Q: What sequence folds into this?
């Protein structure tokens, strides 16, 4: 039995609460990320990890010591750090002659590596080099993806899902207009991914709705995709499965259109509207002439019904 699979029995109440916090839940905790520096890391990779740590705070753990590991060859060390720090996302930075300024984005499922995508940093502008106002720590960013590659190519589609998991932040039910302070824009074109970070400025417009301007805040990355390690379709579907307790129960005879409008279908027997009792209004009261004509019509219809059987016989 490996060290990761052994059962740990708590000896104190604090340890018991700590293990209960890590147990599977219907609504999982916000995803934490860990930033790991490889054995050979350049100044560009080190500064890039620091800037990613600034964007991800406080749901992030930074490891400053160098770790002699290679996630694509051996994943046990990354899985060990993930279980120890309770992090389901990671970024591993390394640098060598074959793959300079390398960043590996990955995520875990059941304490095992699910997806890994290796990106090379071709151009990088640090957060400190852009002289502008910065967003406060823990601001939930607005994510924008541009480019057909994010919808057509499977690697880019999985990369989009990985970036959403990494930068989405905590789940919220509502957000106010003044809370939209940070925008992350990802563009996929010509085999590259351009990442830009902007701060939203609300200017006076002379009316109730403010005028919105984007000011580049940093950091700025130009990525190129290198190696990928993607989960199989069956394992990926298993990771997306939701508990039955959270699945919405299907209600009969209720449907929704493309705009979200709710429609209900009612099943009832056919009604005889001729016997429907309406409100007695003086203006709708029948005149004597109408009553006599209606009575004559009823009498003639009854006589016809009596005559018909005699004619047949």
A:
């Amino acid at each position: 039995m490996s060290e990761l699979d052994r059962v740990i029995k708590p000896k104190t109440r604090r340890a018991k609460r700590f293990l209960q916090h890590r147990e599977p839940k219907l609504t999982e905790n916000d995803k934490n990320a860990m930033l790991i520096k490889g054995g050979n890391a350049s100044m560009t990779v080190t500064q890039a990890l620091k800037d990613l740590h600034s964007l991800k705070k406080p749901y992030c753990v930074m490891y400053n010591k160098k770790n002699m590991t290679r996630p694509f060859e051996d994943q046990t060390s990354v899985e060990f750090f993930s279980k120890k720090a309770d992090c389901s996302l990671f970024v591993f930075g390394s640098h060598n002659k074959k793959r300079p300024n390398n960043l590996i984005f990955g995520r875990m499922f059941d304490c095992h590596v699910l997806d890994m995508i290796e990106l090379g940093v071709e151009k990088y502008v640090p957060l400190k080099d852009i002289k502008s106002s910065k967003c406060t720590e823990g601001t939930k960013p607005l994510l924008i993806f541009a480019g057909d590659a994010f919808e057509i190519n499977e690697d880019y589609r999985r990369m989009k899902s990985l970036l959403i998991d990494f930068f989405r932040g905590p789940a919220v039910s509502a957000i106010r207009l003044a809370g939209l302070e940070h925008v992350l824009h990802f563009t996929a074109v010509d085999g590259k991914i351009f990442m830009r970070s902007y701060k939203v400025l609300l200017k006076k417009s002379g009316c109730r709705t403010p005028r919105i301007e984007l000011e580049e805040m940093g950091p700025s990355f130009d990525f190129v995709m290198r190696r990928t390690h993607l989960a199989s379709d069956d394992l990926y579907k298993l990771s997306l499965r939701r508990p039955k307790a959270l699945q919405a129960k299907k209600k009969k005879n209720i449907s929704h259109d493309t705009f979200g409008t709710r429609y209900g279908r009612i099943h009832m027997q056919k009604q005889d509207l001729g016997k429907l009792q309406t409100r007695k209004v003086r203006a709708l009261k029948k005149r004597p002439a109408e009553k006599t004509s209606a009575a004559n019509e009823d009498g003639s219809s009854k006589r016809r019904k009596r005559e018909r059987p005699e004619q047949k016989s």
User: Anything to note?
Assistant: The first strand starts at residue 33 and ends at 38. The chain has a mean pLDDT of 84.
